[in-house]
Amino acid sequence: MTSISPIIKPEPLHVQAYKYIQNYLLESEFSPGERLTELGLADMLGVSRGPVREAVRLLIHDGLLVQKGVHIYVFDPTFDDVIDIYLCKEGLEPLAAKLAAQNMTQSDQGTLLDIINRTNKALAHDEKRDIVKFNTEFHDLIIQSSGNTQLIQFMNLIHAKNLYMRNNILSNYARRDNFFEEHVRIADAIVNGDGVQAESEMKQHIQNDINMIGTIFKSKQKDDSI
Amino acid sequence: MTSISPIIKPEPLHVQAYKYIQNYLLESEFSPGERLTELGLADMLGVSRGPVREAVRLLIHDGLLVQKGVHIYVFDPTFDDVIDIYLCKEGLEPLAAKLAAQNMTQSDQGTLLDIINRTNKALAHDEKRDIVKFNTEFHDLIIQSSGNTQLIQFMNLIHAKNLYMRNNILSNYARRDNFFEEHVRIADAIVNGDGVQAESEMKQHIQNDINMIGTIFKSKQKDDSI
DNA sequence: AATTTTTACATTGTTGACAAAATACTGATA
DNA sequence: TATCAGTATTTTGTCAACAATGTAAAAATT
Questions:
Q1: Distance between CA B109 and CA B99 in Å, rounded?
Q2: Do A201 and A185 contact (CB within 8 A), yes or no?
Q3: Which of A97, A172, A175, B2 sits a CA distance of 20 to 30 A from A130?
Q4: What pLDDT digit, counting tens, does each position of A104-134 carry?
Q5: 8-state DSSP, A27
Q6: Closest by Cα among B98, B93, B214, B80 to B155
Q7: CB distance B87–A151 less than 8 Å?
Q8: Burial of B49 (0-12, 13-18, 19+ CB in 10 A)
Q9: What is the DSSP letter of A225?
Q10: Coil, strand or helix: which one is A74?
């Protein structure tokens, strides 16, 4: 029997704490390199140290927080870290695209094309926020459609770090102009069920990202920090 | 100043608990699907529930334990899970091989060739335990030599699951005959600094693994469980 | 003034207690 | 026998207290 009960059970505090702190990090509420304390976070969320502690441990495991000695700091990625992440993306996302081409439902294919259309409109109106949002949705849908649970799990980790870097490091830089055409080609290949094509288009797409980051790096090389 | 102090500080209990429980899982001390309780593990390790709880949370995050409702069970992978893992390996390990070819030190290259030699001897004497051990060392060294910290982190997760599955599922099946020749080709490419070659050899190597698993799957398809 | 030593403080590490929830058990009722 | 209600038990969720550790500040010594 399927429940239609209106009663919703609140998630355990440690789960909520994890989500909240992760969100704070992704939304740049904390600065890279900033030091955090369990008590500070606990007071902030209005709970005891226990649940916060579990959340912090997980975030350290994810790499969003870093433990130096006994203290905990917000991950402050170097450009090498950014490149490392993108190389992992280059390894995994083409696989996701290939699997998505094989497994994506009709309904999700419609959603994919819809995202493409909305991206197009957002570009026409130069609505930056939407452009970024639809970009994320595009990649997420492909990953989810891969049907590979392990891959989805790994990409979640990459995704969190990636988003974090986008918000904290790469935010000031304009997106590549031709990313939209690449998205169109990827989507076409997926809708046509051409796994090989989808895989190589996605690979090229991410390599272009990496090249862009490389040019950012060169233009910033004078500075010590990012 | 480098410390030569004989005083060793014990690791925090939650770190030890994590390592111990992970090790139990990898060494098949627990059966797949078995239910674990925090209190049971705590008694087993002689500590309170706190540290165990943190360790369990991490292991759930890693996917080695699974939470169904409130209860915690040992991961009981299906064949689909195994394939999913190996597809991720196919995405990441060729990248590791490519980077290793670019970055591996002279000293590590020597170690790599040494592993090859010892594998050869182990094969000649049919010492299965050593064969498996050297195989693991071979892949680990390449991953470590990639110099990509993110990649290493992800491969640690894959590796734990992979080892777990090897011990629990694939243990009864003979290893492919020609894996040694493939290792030799990979090692040659790395020592020659040929990243492209190393990448494609590694990809082929893992695809062969996947094919083998596929044949195992077919021959076992009658059974419900693994 | 510089360096060590001491002291105080802040923060993490760990535990045991209690509350809440889910599960398993028992017996009553149809 | 099957089903339900109520009870007991197990297990997780959360907290607050205390211990241990490391860090920073202050005092003392050279």
A1: 13
A2: yes
A3: A97
A4: 999 999 999 999 999 999 888 888 788 888 9
A5: T
A6: B93
A7: yes
A8: middle
A9: -
A10: strand
Residues of A in contact with B150 (CB under 8 A): 63, 81, 84-85, 87-88, 158, 161
pLDDT tens string A43-54? 999 999 999 999
Nearest C-alpha neighbor of A182 from the set A208, A163, A157 = A208
- Give which of A205, A199, A96 is closest to A148, Cα–Cα: A96
DSSP letter at A175 equals P
Phi first, then psi: give them for residue A28, nearest 5 degrees: 60, 30
Residue with tokens 């590979």: A148
Binary contact (A90, B95; C-beta < 8 A): yes
| CB neighbourhood size of A142 (10 A) | 27
**Token representation of residue B141:** 């060294």
Give residue B191's pLDDT band: very low, low, confident or very high (50, 70, 90).
very high
Residue type, A143: I
pLDDT band at B153 (very low <50, low <70, confident <90, very high): confident
The answer to whether residue B91 neighbours chain A at the CB level (below 8 Å) is yes
Question: Could you give the 3-state DSSP secondary structure of residue A12?
Answer: coil
Q: Which nucleotides on strand C sit less than 7 A from a protein beta carbon?
A: 10-17, 21-23
pLDDT one-digit tens code per residue, B84-103: 999 999 999 999 999 999 99
Q: Which residues touch strand D (CB under 7 A)?
A: A 12-14, 47-51, 69-71; B 9, 36-39, 49-50, 53, 70-72
Supply B72's token pair: 């915690």
**pLDDT number for residue B3:** 37
Task: Give B222's DSSP letter.
Answer: T
Q: What is the mean pLDDT of residues B5-23?
A: 83
Q: How far apart are CA A66 and CA A59, in angstroms?
A: 8
pTM, to two decimals: 0.84
* Subunit contact B150:A54, Cβ cutoff 8 A: no
Q: Which two tokens stand for residue A132?
A: 């970024």
Burial degree of B50 (CB within 10 A; 0-12, 13-18, 19+): middle
Cα–Cα distance measured from residue A139 to residue A162, given in angstroms and rounded to the nearest whole number: 12
SS3 content of chain A, % helix, strand, coil (to 5): 70, 5, 25
C-alpha dihedral sign at B184, B187, B191, B195: positive
Chain-centre distance for alpha carbon A201? 19
Nucleotide nearest to B49 (CA to C1'): C15
Q: Which residue of A has its CA nearest to B99?
A: A87
Give B68's strand partners. Answer: B71
